[in-house]
From TrEMBL:
Species the sequence originates in: Gossypium lobatum
Region ranges (Disordered): 97-118
Catalysed reactions, as listed in the record: Exonucleolytic cleavage of poly(A) to 5'-AMP
Assigned protein family: Belongs to the CCR4/nocturin family.
GO terms for cellular component: cytoplasm; nucleus
Function recorded in the entry: Acts as a catalytic component of the CCR4-NOT core complex, which in the nucleus seems to be a general transcription factor, and in the cytoplasm the major mRNA deadenylase involved in mRNA turnover.
Protein name stated in the entry: poly(A)-specific ribonuclease
Domain Endonuclease/exonuclease/phosphatase: 207-538
Subunit structure: Component of the CCR4-NOT complex, at least composed of CRR4 and CAF1 proteins.
UniProt KW keywords: Cytoplasm, Exonuclease, Hydrolase, Magnesium, Metal-binding, Nuclease, Nucleus, Repeat, RNA-binding, Transcription, Transcription regulation
Gene3D superfamilies named in the record: Endonuclease/exonuclease/phosphatase
Protein localization: Cytoplasm; Nucleus
Length: 553
């Protein structure tokens, strides 16, 4: 038999909204007046409040804005996502949940009953199941888990119960909401249907996100992130809520461990209507547990798309083919050691189930090709990065030659704006004098004139600098005008810059809106990513596209 209790002291305890492991010593009266979530009003010290003010004042501004708009809160992507969650991590902290309506595990909870008082503490029974999800009522309190063996025949307890006490329950940090910003001048938020998705049947959304594999999320590498926030049980739930909350029609994830795909992401996203496809990295180099090898996962909504075809790109196989024909026999082993890095790409051809409004042939099948990749991370292997990107693009060119099909190229390219891989993607070529080309010990990049492709690719987020519409000025400040890319998509203590992109073929797709970018003020001043709010060291990118009649050339 299982019993769970909340130990409630006669003395009320409030926790800091910025440092949830610390007890609060002051409260922002502005939050109370604006009827902002009570839990967000607490701070552990004047310095904590002062340091957090620039971020905290956003809560006040949003509350004032909501009042000005007929008293209705402005609906935001992450706001809708938070309102549908359960438990402490995603619950709104404006009040406590009613215990009479809660269910934990398989056993409905009865109205809370006092079971025992001892030394100024009261034990409230909160559940009788194997599992229990903390509620907002539990914040600031210790939970007690009690397990006792029951005789199957007599139904009586056998022996003494085993008990376990938790630390105080803390509220899960609430990330700053991220909105979809129109780049075409229309009010994006007015185009959302009752389900929170785009009502325009001719558009679709694509998410690209490196979720940070658990095998890479070590406390040594990310010492600034609290251990509980770096743990996979916490991160996977936080990531899932974030991903589901964006309601993207197509989701491209990188660094998805194969066991996490099979046991968590595929079944969980299936509940939300997604079909899953996966390509694990090859493991010629990897020497650890095979189950922790990561890869690329692509999901799509079954009600919006159907699966037509899948291509798997293994750069290791391409390396073996290259060395057979382009490398001298005496250098083959050296070449393979340099080129074989286990990276892969997953290419999926989908057929849209929605109407392509405005097309010149409404009866024609609307296909879409989506590439999802994770390019090698080692910065010194500039030639390998360029070669991998070039190999992927040549494969996509073959698909484009066989079908009239719009294309999306998403992923973590581990290449900053202006690098040779980025130039190849965005410009269709690489300047022969580009410094990255100086690193080419195997001469696989020569002649440099071959580093081209014919796909009319454009980076989706460059639309923030080209578009017109409300809210774009703030987003432009988060862009680098020299490269037409975000200032960062990856932010750690050691590095801040852009590595992730969504490219699209501009002759067949147009960008309608983009998920707003984070700025450094949106992140905690005393840390980087991952953090309790954001569970990866990368940020998610999301774009809304519309298919357009292909330009005749």
């Amino acid at each position: 038999m299982f019993c769970r209790y909340r130990i409630q002291s006669d003395r009320k305890v409030a926790v800091c909204s910025v440092h949830p492991s610390e007890q609060a010593t002051l409260q922002c009266l502005g939050c109370v007046k604006a009827k902002i979530s009570v839990a967000k009003s607490y701070h552990c010290s004047p310095k904590c409040f002062s340091d957090a003010w620039q971020h905290h004042r956003v809560l006040h501004d949003r509350a004032a804005s909501a009042v000005n708009e007929n008293g209705n809160e402005e609906e935001e992507i992450f706001g809708r996502f938070n309102s549908t969650g359960s438990g402490v991590i995603s619950a709104s902290l404006t009040g406590s949940a009613s215990s009479t309506s809660l269910t934990n595990g398989s056993t409905p909870l009865h109205p809370t009953a006092v079971t025992q008082r001892s030394g100024g503490e009261t034990w409230f029974e909160v559940g009788r199941s194997k599992t229990y999800t903390p509620t907002t009522d539990d914040i600031g309190h210790v939970l007690k888990f009690e397990c006792v063996v029951i005789d199957a025949e007599t139904k009586l307890p056998v022996g003494h119960p085993n008990t376990l006490l938790t630390s105080r329950v803390i509220p899960a940090p609430s990330p700053s909401p991220r909105r979809l910003i129109s780049v075409g001048g229309a009010d994006m938020m007015g185009q959302l249907d009752s389900d929170g998705r785009l009502s325009s049947s001719g558009t679709f959304t694509v998410l690209s996100y490196n979720i940070l594999s658990d095998s890479y999320a070590s406390s040594e590498l990310y010492s600034y992130c609290p251990s509980w926030a770096l743990s996979w049980p916490y991160r996977r739930q936080n990531l899932l809520r974030e991903i589901v909350g964006y309601r993207a029609d197509i989701v491209c994830l990188q660094e998805v461990q194969c066991d996490h795909f099979d046991e968590f992401f595929a079944p969980e996203l299936d509940k939300h209507g997604y079909q899953a496809l996966y390509k694990r990295k090859t493991n010629e180099v990897y020497s650890g547990n095979i189950h922790t090898i990561d890869g690329c996962a692509t999901f799509f909504r079954r009600d919006r798309f159907s699966h037509v075809k899948k291509y798997e790109v293994e750069f290791n196989k391409a390396a073996q083919s290259l060395t057979e024909v382009a490398v001298q026999t005496t250098q083959k082993k050296v070449a393979l050691n340099r080129l074989v890095k286990d990276n892969v790409a997953l290419i999926v051809v989908l057929e849209a189930k929605f109407t392509n409004q405005g097309a010149d042939n409404p009866g024609k099948r609307q296909l879409l090709c989506v590439a999802n990749t994770h390019v090698n991370v080692q910065q010194e292997l500039k030639d390998v990065k360029i070669w991998q990107v070039h190999t992927l693009l040549k494969g996509l060119e073959k698909i484009a030659a066989s079908a009239d099909i719009p294309m999306l190229v998403c992923g973590d390219f581990n290449s900053v704006p202006g690098s040779a891989p980025h130039s190849l993607l965005a410009m269709g070529k690489v300047d022969p004098l580009h410094p990255d080309l100086l690193v080419d010990p195997l001469a696989i990049l020569r002649p440099h004139s071959k580093l081209t492709h014919q796909l009319p690719l454009v980076s989706a987020y460059s639309a923030f600098l080209r578009g017109v519409g409300l809210g774009l000025e703030q987003q432009r400040r988060r862009m680098d005008p020299a490269t037409n890319e975000p200032l960062f998509t990856n932010c750690t203590r050691d590095f801040i810059g852009t590595l992730d992109y969504i490219f699209y073929t501009a002759d067949s797709l147009t960008v309608e809106s983009l998920l707003e970018l984070l700025d450094e003020d949106s992140l905690r001043k005393d840390t980087a990513l991952p953090s309790p709010e954001w569970s990866s060291d990368h940020i998610a990118l999301l774009a809304e596209f519309r298919c357009v009649p292909r330009t005749r050339r």
